[in-house]
Structures are given as C-alpha cells and as structure tokens.
Amino acid sequence: MKTQNRLPQALFKACILFLGCTILVPAVMFGQAGNASVSKRPQSFDLTAMDRTVDPCEDFYEYACGTWRKENPVPSDQVFWARYNQLAEYNREVLRKLLEQAAVVTPRRTPAARTIGDFYSSCMNTTVAEQQGHAPLKPELAGINSVSSREQLMKAVAHLHSIGVAALFEFGVQPDMHDATMETATIFQGGLGLPDRDYYIGQDDKSKETRARYAAHIAAMLTLAGESPETAPKDAATVLQIEIKLAEGSYERVKMRDPQNRDHKMTVHALAEMAPNLLFPLFFKAAGAPAFAEVNVAPPDFFLKLNAVIDSAPLDNWKAYLRWRVIQANAPFLSNAFVKEDFEFERRFLNGQREQEPRWKTCVSATDRLLGQALGRVYVEQTFSPASKERLAAMVNLEEQALAQDIQELPWMTAETRQQALLKLKAITNKIGYPEKWLDYSTVNMKRDDLPGNVVRARKFQVSYNLEKIAKPVDPKEWVITTPTVNAYYYPPENSINFPAGVLQPPLFNPEMDDAVNFGAIGWLIGHELTHGFDDQGSKFDGHGNLANWWTQSDRAEFEKRTSCLADQYQQLVVVDDVHLNGRLTLGENTADNGGIRIALTALHQSLATHPQAQNTIDGFTADQRFFISFAQQWCANITPERLRVIAKVDPHAPVSLRTLGTLRNYSDFAKAFGCKSGQAMVSPNVCRVW
C-alpha cells in the first residue's frame, strides 16, 4: 500500500477492501497538498467563480465554475486541483501550525501533542534522512535474504504484515457480514504495486508502456537499496511477473463491488486445506493475531490461484518480491533519492503531477495518516464549534424525513419492501464531528531523529490494535476516518453516516449562509451518504448492518432495472479522449449523487416552508437556483489527463464535472429552476431515477 497517493491506510483497508463503505471523494483529490498557498477557505457561494456567458441549460458546470477553472489551473505539484483541495489546503495549514506548536518541547505538552510533535519533527529532519540513505531498510532486507524455506517465507510475509507492509494479500478485521456486532478476521486479494489489476492484464499500448516503466522504476529502487545495476533489472522483471500472476488471479473491481463476492467465511482449518502452500495457521500466529477459528476469505478463487503460484516460483523470486514491497512501502520516508524516484513514477508518470510537494505538507499528511486520532484530538480542541455540530444534526434530521417521504411515495415499491426500507432508514446512526473517545498512543515510542522507525512503530501499533479486535464485539463508537479529514462516508456494518469536523466548514458548510447554499453543499452530501445505504451495495445490508435480503423478488427486479438505467446512462459519458466512464464501477456513487440531490432539495423546501423569508431572491438568484449553484460549485476542479485515465480505471467516483452534469440532467426541478427545455444538453432524453 503506497502512502503518497492512495487513500489513508486505515480508511482504504477498512472501507474499500474489507467493508465496501462509500466515501464522498477519493483521498487523492486532497491527499498531498500543492505549493499554492491558501490563506483562507474558499467561499460557500462564489459569484466570481461563475461564467455567466455560458448557458446554464447547455453546460451548468461551466456556468457555475467556468471563471474559477480558468483562474485555477492544476498546480505543478498536483494532479487534481479543486475547491475541495483549497479547503484541504487551508485545513493542512491549520494542521501545520498545530504540529509546529506541538513539536516544541515544553513541560506543558499533552501526551497527544508530544506524540504528533515528535513524529512531525522527525519527518521534517531531512538531514538525518540523507545521512541514513537506505540504512533503515537493511534489517528488513537482511531478514528477507535469510529466508531458506517455505515456512520462513510465510513467516517473513507475516512479519511484513505486522509492520503494515501488505505482501501477497491483505489481512485485517471487519464486522461479520452476517452478525455486524462481532469482528471477524478477513483475508483479501492484494499484493499489487500498481493501482489496479487491469494495468497488468491490459494489452493496449498505454498498459504495456506502464508495465515497462514500472519494471524500470522497481529496478531503480532496488539499486538505491543496494542491489547491483546488473542484478536489479533481473529482480525487477521477476517482481513484475509475480505481480502479473497475482493480478490474473484477482477479481476485477466491479465484481468485488458485489458483497456476495466478499462473503466467504470458513474455518481456519478449511482454509489451510484449501490453500496448504500458504501455511495460514503459521501466518496468522506470526502476524501477531490472537487465536481465532474462522476467517472471511475474499475471494477464495484468488487464494486457490495464489496457492499454486507460491509453489511454482523459486524462493529467490519471492524474496525479490518481498524486498520490493518493503522498499515501496517506505520510499516516501527515506532519503531524497528514494523520494524523488517514487515521485517520478507514482506521481509524474501515473498521474501527471509535474513537481514534488513541499516537505512540510508531506509530513502533515503522514501525521494524519499514521497518528490521526492524536492529531484529531488537538485539532478539535482548537477548531470545531459545538454550534456547527448542532446545526448539522438538525439538517440530518430534516433530510432523513425527506428520504422517508421519498420512500413512501416511490411508485414502484410494494408495501412489504417499503416497510423494511423505512425500518433501515430509522436505524441509521449519525456520527458528527469527532469520536466520543480517542485512541491512546502512549505506548508508541516516537523519536525526533528516527522517521523510518517512527513510521514502522506507528504502523505496527495500528495493525496490532486492529488485529486485537478479532472475535470481539464491534465498538459502535469507533471511526474509520480521521477527524481533520475533508471527507465523509457511509458505513454498512454500522448503518451509519459519518461527518468528521474537517468537512464541516466552508465551502461545504457555513452557518452564516442561507439554507439554500448549505443544503446545496453539505445538505447534498448528507443526502448522498444516506442514499448509500440504499445503493447497489448498501441495499444488500439490513438496518443492523448484516448482509441480508430485505427485498421482495419483484421489488429487487424493479430496483435492478433502475440502477441499470443509471449505469447505462453514465457509461456513455466520456472521461478523457476516447475513454468512457465505467457505469458499473461508478454505479454506487452515481446512485448516491442522484438520490442526494433530490433528498437535499426536498429538505430545503421543508425548511423554507417554516422560514418564508429565506425564500427571498439573493444576488439575483432564487433559493432553488442558489441551491443548484452551491451544489455545482463544490465540484469546481481541473484534472490532468493522466489522472483522468487512472480515475476511469480504478475510481468508483465519476470525474467531478460528470458528477455535476450527469446528476442535474436527470432532475426536473433543476430544469424548472433555470428554464431548461427538452433537447437542451442539461435535460436528459432518458431520465433515470432510483431514489
């Protein structure tokens, strides 16, 4: 798992791999900050962002964002630049000040401040990193090189897992898919160094070029880590061939969206018999997991194929692969030669970023990723208002009422399924702001002159903390996203919607703005997350978070008919050049986008009914027009063509322009608000609606 341009480790593994929970946007949108300085947050409703020369009925995205897009090209150290990035930049500058204060050694430092301050100080100490070179890797590489048997190989794999380096597959914990009150062990397909299996399998010119560049990148990294220039290319070719085998055994992303393909619980004994070459009983013990009897295997086909592959290659090949996994996982925290090579392939080649980000921004992101609750605790104490929490809770209540009304009025749903849908909606829990209790990092020893060691110790703490949950009751108060994060998510095992403090600020949420603006941005987001409970994945879980069919056969068929309409509609949209959107991969997010806009506008109208003065025209726009402009402006963005190609292949979210245009074209209230007529681009000739 790379740390520079993937989702934060805990969120990625828990949400995407194991649980299928759905987040608002991928973290790469605002994962590593750019050089552009942001002294204040973007406005909630920005008239200067608009291009009013554009007909809103032909291209509403350009109408709402055109001037902003002209004036905000992608910075040289970014692959994506959006108003979300501007907010994340502002947030990151706040976090930088907090961390710089925490890094000052004083008797008054709290334990949380000491933990994050010492880590941040070590990260900023590039002098030590340059002095050390690849020395921090030597103990791990030596351990791998000493492997001389299958048993030692699997112990080495287990050790890497215990320090947060996933090799061959993923191993973690998730709520039981049929008893969401209990945690269960899970193994999941994985072990790849490129973003997706399709990079290894595709026969188009770009895929072939990517594999060639990837092999050269591996060789360069191996050379930096001490291998000879003659040996490194051979080992790189070996690594690539191993990963190709892993990719060939992996399910594609669309297939893994189906919870049924992630639901294969079996005894450890049965797993050991199914894949004897992987020595799973030995692996689980060596990884530091407590004793357990059952494990969820997602999917068994991958591990059957891995079982054959592990026996088909000599130990030296696997040792080369493990060395690469160690180097790849730690490259961002080593000397500049490693950081630069990592950037050149991961960011420049794969995503089109032209320049490295400043060191302090890398260190802020790393602190949040590895010690998020300690940082979040300090962040909340200084930034988050209880009044904001109360107002958001009131908006959530209105939107839950709006969704209930929507469910009750659906013409295609029968009474039996309708009752179950309403029961699930009523059972949804809401987490707003921050956890009720904070994670205690007091056992994690942070040293101000040992960044690689700090990273290993923080990762080891995370892994151990998570594995200790196996076979224990789920803690419903726990979060799987850090408090400062500019994002939100729906969590199927809890049937919960989650809004950390980082997202509850302008341009998404501003207590000083009128309801139309707030419901267009944060209100739409509330509706989006609520709808995730009823999208193509969420609809397969009941109100208790269990994988269960609460649909009649006829209603499920009607639901599938409507989601297919949406998938086919979005499949026609072009992402970049001749690359189309994957309508099935993005189906959950597109369903939530379309449902969220409907729920939020209904809630706004309910609010306006009790506050007639709020219906007044402001800045020349009606309440409904302000709502739609506010919705569109949260997506103002520019993206590199290279990043768009990656998005099309791996991202369950459509590019932001299509999230705006694709959603509003399906909505008659939008057409009414701006006087759009049939035949215009913003009026779909084939309207699709699920919720």
Describe this structure in words.
With 691 residues, the chain is of the alpha+beta class. Helices cover 53% and strands 8% of the residues. It contains 28 helices and 12 strands. The strands form 4 sheets. A 4-stranded mixed β-sheet has the order 1-8-9-7, sandwiched between helices. The chain has a 4-stranded mixed β-sheet with strand order 3-4-6-5. A hairpin with a 2-residue loop joins strand 10 and strand 11. The N terminus is likely disordered.
Helix content: 40-55%
Mean pLDDT: 92
Q: How do the strands line up in the largest sheet?
A: 1-8-9-7
Beginning-to-end CA distance, first to last residue: 36 Å
Q: Ranges with pLDDT <50 over ≥5 residues?
A: 1-21, 27-38
> Class by helix and strand content?
alpha+beta
Q: How many strand segments?
A: 12
Kindly estimate the percentage of residues that lie in beta strands according to DSSP.
5-15%
The biggest beta sheet is recorded as:
4 strands, mixed
* Integer-rounded radius of gyration: 25 Å
Total of DSSP H or I helical runs spanning 4+ residues: 28
Q: Outline, from the CA principal axes? A: globular
